Amino acid sequence: MYFNSLFLILGARYIILFAVILLVLIYARIKSFKIKIHFLDNNFYKGHIKFYDLNGIIHFHSTYSDGSGKIENLIKIAKKLKADFLISSDHNTLKPKYDGLEGHYGNLFYFAGEEINTEFGHFLALGIKDEIKRGDYKDVLLNIKKQNGLGIICHPHNWWTPWKNFSVSGFNGIEIINLDSQWRGMNPLYILLVLITYKINSFYSLHFLAHKPKKTLEFWDSVQKHNRLITGIASIDAHSNVKISKNKRVKFPKYEELFSIARTHLMLDKKFSGNIEKDKSLIIKAIKKGSCYFSFDLFGKPSGFYFEAETIGQNNRNEYFASGDTINLKKLKNEIQYINFYSGININHKKTNYEIILYKNGKQLYRVKNSALEFKIKISYNNTNIKPVKLTDKLNTEIKNKNDDNYGIETIKDFINNNKPESSNFYRIEINIIKGYKKITYLYSNNIEIFSE
Ligand SMILES: [Zn+2]
Ligand SMILES: [Zn+2]
Asked: Ligand 1 centre and the CA of 127: distance in Å?
């Protein structure tokens, strides 16, 4: 009896000691947690098509609707965070524009969009001059088009206001990343983890928002059609205004935190001019076309990213295409020998492990680890004696030993048949960073279309 209780007391002490040590270790681990992508010191661009990379914060709510921040203050925050452009989207109002807030604030360009309620869900209208009232999707869309604006489906798969009709047409883009959905849509256990760890290390807490929205990506890949490229963007949807009881709201997560997590990067052939309307249409055109990519910049601002296709003809005549471009094979005719895909980024692979994945119509086609991507489709004119099509899907770490096995080969007849307008093919890139057991999709490109007509 005596020994038993002594054992119990000693045992309980050890358990408590063990628990305390464990808690201290977990606390220290969370406190010091950081994922930072290491980029090369000498940043160079290896792509063929030069562009200006302007990054922006799209979709947030201010005191004009249900956000807690004043636009004037949010402009200051975005400026401090080195964004090039900032677009608000208060619910069913364009009042910030009427109040004369649009304009250039040093290097930051701000303008107002609108998030409009339709019977199918929330719809983002950018580049419109006149306010559009909430209403039927068809009427809202028509009004946006009349005003030369663009329409984007908001947070299609969040659980409280999901998009309700996935067979609609006419929209220009989809919010692939919507940070509000990213955190509220997480597994409740993760939400709890986010809330508990937020005070210890907000970076640790917020890095959970960088997860892959699988359903939305599937939707995005399924709606691409010939001459109707649907653009993917990352949007913030910041409110910083969480209701916790009838009279109490908390400013969580903070605007400056959300503004730092994800950005949409435009690939422009010129910089902003300083003229409000001209710069607005520059942004609208780039998003409409798909000349943009989006990334989780909290891990590091992307440097030197490119994604291109090159068509090589018989006399080494080649042309280059970037995301948002459409390649018409018929224009290149029998001359075509290869189509090469290139992608790269200035990540220092000695310090940060990463992989680049090429997708075709939403399916993985090829991937490389810690290296620039080069994928070649050889077009064969000999229809009888040809190797089977071999499109490698395995992780290729030995990119140096390139041989035909790394390449896809198709006959010209098959290639053209497989790329008819009704069966256009769409190619895009994703970049993952790998940290221990964690794999985070850091960057998403938009699509390049290939077809034959
Ligand atoms: Zn919404
Ligand atoms: Zn919103």
From this structure: 18
Q: Are residues 56 and 203 in the same domain?
A: yes
The yes-or-no verdict on residue 306 having pLDDT over 90 is yes
Residues 265 and 403 in one domain: no
What's the 121 CA to ligand 1 centre distance in angstroms? 8
Domain count, the chain: 2
- Interval between CA 115 and ligand 1 midpoint (Å): 7
Closest ligand to residue 179's CA: 2
Domain shared by 172 and 238, yes or no: yes
Do both 342 and 285 map to the same domain?
Answer: no
Nearest to 59 by CA among 159, 153, 143: 153
Which ligand gives the minimal distance to the CA of 65?
2
* Closest alpha carbon to 45 in 318, 372, 445: 372
Q: Which residue has the tokens 């109040």?
A: 99
| Interval between CA 178 and ligand 1 midpoint (Å) | 9
Which domain-ending residue is among 264, 290, 316? 290
**Ligand having the closest approach to the CA of 64:** 2
* CA 205–ligand 1 middle distance (angstroms): 23
- For ligand 1, the distance from its centroid to the CA atom of residue 154, given in whole angstroms, is 6
Centre of ligand 1 to C-alpha 89, Å, is: 9
Which tens digit of pLDDT belongs to each residue from 206-239? 999 999 999 999 999 999 999 999 999 999 999 9
| pLDDT above 90 (res 4) | no
Residues in the chain: 453
**Paired tokens of 182:** 């990213």
Sign of CA dihedral 143, 148, 149, 150: positive
